[in-house]
Design a protein that fits this description.
By secondary structure, the chain is an alpha/beta fold. The protein has 14 helices and 14 strands. Helix 1 crosses helix 3 (123-137), helix 10 packs across helix 11 and helix 11 (295-318) packs across helix 13. It binds adenosine-5'-diphosphate (ADP).
């Protein structure tokens, strides 16, 4: 089955076409600057990357352009659009309504709309992508795969905030967690790779990218995760602060004369390793700056690793042990120094890193020594493939 996987943001749309039998990516790319001017990037398997500047006033034109590229007589991968048999949409926030992926119908769309106040930037954009595909692809079945769904197995003591219980009852204010598709994919993959049953492992997945989160997976179920009601909670990230005393927000808003909204913008977009280093949110830049003796870049990297290690320690406690720690996403898959610094806090777990293996990048690799009590795994994530698999499973 040929599945079109769509990840739609407010002004962008990323896509991949995956054949579910071979799991091969037949084409991929993105539309950028939707509603501004418009730019399509299209890359067929074994072909050159093409960039086309063309007006895209809305996501509907963006979807049309992607589909036109897929059936372009010269560089397209399909003869006709009938060859697209299903669409899998990444949906960000499913609230408490969705604990699994779903086939999209009007009822589902309404339910996702109802979750929009929990993710005002993401859900409406995701749904615009759904509507645009429905308009153009009419009767092709579509699935929604939620970032939050995997974490719906968290127990109350993990997901409730220590605030008046009515706020949970009235507004569903609680921890939801994100990156669920990645945490699920990577933790399953780790069990397969190690030849162990998924439902008998204690795994900690460190998804370290521009956005970062850590998840405790016990016997195949998410039991805790570092992101919260929004992706702002938890780790120090590229530009997000992660955990911070809420009183600091009031204190700083007064000092800087900022509104709550402006303050949250600072915490989301101007903080994290970017804010601390004053330099960049990208670890390649930070690593370079550290090697040139930049003290603030060094502090930013140390803070990032320290916070990650604290979460790993707390999740080892929550699960009463840990068998496997996985590193994934841009930083986790590529930055051996960061992995080494995080693991340097974890000797008390009997964890020993193999420094030679830790030089690997982007390739499934055991990074711990044979006598390490905890297996450390470099496990590349693949959210698009996970969405494709979920979509196909729902249609079977
Ligand atoms: P996103 O959260 O946007 O999906 P990714 O998982 O793609 O992010 O991660 C992007 C980040 O990965 C970059 O901002 C950069 O910090 C980091 N990264 C990518 N390649 C490398 C590398 N070779 N070394 C260190 N960090 C890297």
């Amino acid at each position: 089955m040929n599945v079109l996987v769509i990840n739609c943001g407010s002004s962008s749309l990323k896509y991949q076409v995956i054949n579910s039998e071979s799991e091969e990516v037949l084409a991929k790319g993105l539309c950028e600057r939707i509603g501004i001017d418009g730019r399509l990037v299209y890359q067929p398997k074994d072909g050159e990357k093409e960039i086309t500047e063309a007006p895209m006033p809305t996501h509907t034109e963006a979807v049309r352009m992607v589909l036109d590229a897929l059936v372009n007589p010269d560089t397209g991968i399909f003869q006709s659009l009938d060859e697209i048999e299903a669409v899998g949409h990444r949906l960000v926030h499913g609230g408490e309504k969705f604990a699994a992926s779903v086939l999209i119908n009007e009822e589902v769309i309404t339910a996702v709309e109802e979750c929009s106040d929990l993710a005002p930037l993401h859900n409406p954009a995701n749904l615009i992508g759904v509507r645009a595909c429905q308009e153009v692809l009419k009767d092709v079945p579509m699935a929604g795969v939620f970032d939050t769904a995997f974490h719906q197995t968290m127990p109350k003591e993990a997901y409730l905030y220590g605030i008046p219980y009515e706020y949970y009852e009235k507004y569903k204010a609680r921890k939801y967690g994100f990156h669920g598709t990645s945490h699920s994919y990577v933790s399953k993959r780790a069990a397969e790779f190690l030849g162990k049953p998924y439902d008998s492992l204690k795994t900690i997945v460190c998804h370290l990218g521009n956005g970062s989160s850590i998840c405790a997976v016990k016997n195949g179920k998410s039991v805790d995760t570092s992101m919260g009601l929004s992706p702002l909670e938890g780790l120090i990230m590229g530009t997000r602060s992660g955990d911070i005393d809420p009183s600091a927000i009031e204190f700083l808003a007064k000092k800087e004369n900022l509104s709550l909204e402006e303050m949250l913008n600072v915490l989301n977009k101007e903080s994290g390793v970017y804010g601390i280093s004053g330099l960049s949110s990208d670890f390649r830049d930070l690593d370079q700056a550290v090697s040139e003796g930049n003290a603030r870049a060094k502090t930013a990297r140390e803070m990032f690793c320290y916070r990650a290690a604290k979460y790993i320690g707390s999740y080892a406690a929550a699960m009463n042990g840990v068998d496997v720690i996985c590193f994934t996403a841009g930083v986790g898959e590529n930055d051996g120094k960061v992995r080494e610094m995080i693991c340097s806090y974890l000797g008390y777990l009997g964890l020993a890193l193999d420094s030679e293996a830790n030089k690997k990048r982007g390739e499934e690799t055991v990074l711990s020594t044979p006598d390490s009590k905890v297996t450390v795994l470099l496990a590349p994530t693949n959210e698009e493939l996970a969405i494709c698999r979920e979509t196909v499973a729902l249609l079977k």
